[in-house]
Design goal:
By secondary structure, the chain is mainly alpha-helical. It has three domains: 30 residues; 40 residues, no CATH class; 201 residues, MetI-like fold. It is 71% helix and 2% strand. Strands 1-2 form a two-stranded antiparallel sheet. Strand 1 and strand 2 form a beta hairpin. Helix 3 crosses helix 11, helix 4 crosses helix 7 and helix 4 crosses helix 11.
């Protein structure tokens, strides 16, 4: 990607961030003081009496409830979230929340990357096997699809019990979410070459191995990287969910769970944890995107 492309992407990302912030704060401005109704539609306390709001008295729009409560507990101000990140999470602590969340994000990212590599490898080899054997595809692909219908929250505790609750068990849970999109897209990509290209390879007496690595895999690269970008964010989600029953205290999952227990007294800390979890997934997605630009854009034109 050239410099102009990077500038456009960065500018577009900043616009999205600004729009989200404006929507967040604007939504709160539209709410009544209790955060439950649209401003002007709820009753207002005047002295010792409660009178209809101006919109209610004027056009009959009374007590119009907002879809999401907009008080400071449900939707903390953005400035409070930012200031909380640079403050200690509890009294007597010399470590600011930013450092704690950054360390937890790196730990969770390690689990996610390990699971991503395991799941991507498994998905690639399954896709290759299915592409070369219709019998394997008909026999195993339905079970691969069915595996994704099992709730992750039901599988995670079992994996943790089987593997002892270490960080590798969390990576296995992340791999569970990763392998499926890679399998399906690898299979589609390996079957994407034109019949004329396959006939040309056969005319040169190319072996299946040659056809795989010189034709099918290069043709499948855009499909595979599309799946890898989906799998990258899914692996972070799987790692966070896997940390919940594992008892691992170093990752984002446990931190988010702890902050959720104290949400009533410090909602900003939970939102800060959610922001860091999102940034972790976005960072991993960006890394895969950069790899895609390198491998796909820099591929010779006659590679397929």
């Amino acid at each position: 990607m050239n410099r102009l492309g990077w500038l456009k992407s960065t500018f577009f990302f900043l616009i999205i961030v600004v729009v989200l912030i404006l929507f967040w704060e604007g939504y709160k401005l539209l709410a009544s003081p209790d955060g439950q109704y649209l401003t002007g539609t709820a009753q207002v306390k005047v002295g010792d009496e409660r009178v209809p709001g101006p919109l209610c008295a004027g056009i009959g729009l009374c007590e119009l409830k907002l879809p999401v409560r907009a008080d400071d507990r449900s939707m903390p101000p953005i400035k409070n979230m930012i200031s909380t990140i640079f403050e200690p999470p509890r009294r007597g602590s010399n470590e600011i929340l930013f450092t704690i969340l950054l360390r937890a994000s790196l730990f969770t990212l390690r689990e996610a990357v390990t699971g991503f590599l395991l799941g991507a490898a498994a998905g690639f080899f399954l896709g290759v096997a299915f592409a070369h054997s219709g019998l394997l595809e008909r026999g195993l692909l339905p079970y691969v699809v069915a595996s994704q219908t099992v709730p992750l929250l039901a599988i995670a505790p079992m994996v943790v019990i089987w593997m002892g609750g270490n960080w590798m068990s969390v990576s296995v849970i992340a791999a569970y979410l990763t392998f499926f999109p890679v399998t399906i897209n690898t299979l589609r990509g390996l079957r994407s070459p034109q019949p004329t290209s396959l006939e040309l390879m056969h005319s040169y007496a190319a072996t299946k191995w040659d056809i795989l690595w010189k034709l099918r895999v290069p043709s499948a690269m855009p499909y595979i990287f599309t799946a890898l970008k989906v799998a990258a964010t899914a692996s972070v989600v799987g790692a966070i969910i896997g940390e919940l029953p594992s008892g691992i205290a170093d990752g984002l999952g446990r931190i988010i769970l702890n902050f959720n227990q104290y949400y009533a007294t410090g909602p900003e800390r939970l939102w800060a944890g959610i922001i860091f979890a999102s940034l972790t997934g976005m960072t991993f997605f960006l890394i895969i995107t950069l790899l895609e630009k390198f491998f796909v854009r820099h591929r010779p034109a006659d590679a397929v």
